[in-house]
TrEMBL record:
InterPro entries: ZFP36-like, Znf-CCCH_4, Znf_CCCH, Znf_CCCH_sf. Transmembrane segments: none annotated. PANTHER family: CCCH ZINC FINGER/TIS11-RELATED, PROTEIN TIS11. Residues 78-105 form the C3H1-type domain. The keyword NADP does not apply. A zinc finger (C3H1-type) spans 78-105. It holds the Pfam family zf-CCCH_4. Residues 1-46 are annotated as: Disordered. This is C3H1-type domain-containing protein. It comes from Perkinsus olseni (Perkinsus atlanticus). Gene3D superfamilies: Zinc finger, CCCH-type.
Amino acid sequence: MPPSCTKRKQWGKGASSGAFPRIRDSTGSSLLPPPELSLKPGLLEPPPSSPDVLLSLIPLSTERSNSRQPSQWVKDRLFKTKVCRYFIKGRCKYGDKCTYAHSADEVQAIPDLHKTRTCYKINCTNQSCPFAHSIYELRDPFVGSELI
């Protein structure tokens, strides 16, 4: 019998391959974190290098899900946070549809996205690293994301 089948039998009926056995210390207390702190699928995957892929990784909050995609939420938050370099040179071909600001009045504040994704470096010790190094450091980009 394959080892995976043996483990399922040890864990009890109905245990799936994603289930965890009940591990307890000598006092009988569970060594697993409480369910509300359990890892979410993909939580510890390294961030991709493409900005377009990064935009699609931010999860939807139940309060903000509506019909918009997560990448659209990020694009909305980053809309006109920088001045258009082509407009400054008088050559912006997008006009009113440009996602960059064409005047100082249009410039929006940049949202704080620090610690909203996990760091891809395994042994990162950089105190100023903008990425989270544990599930306890992770912030929800939709909750308490005051603008800087």
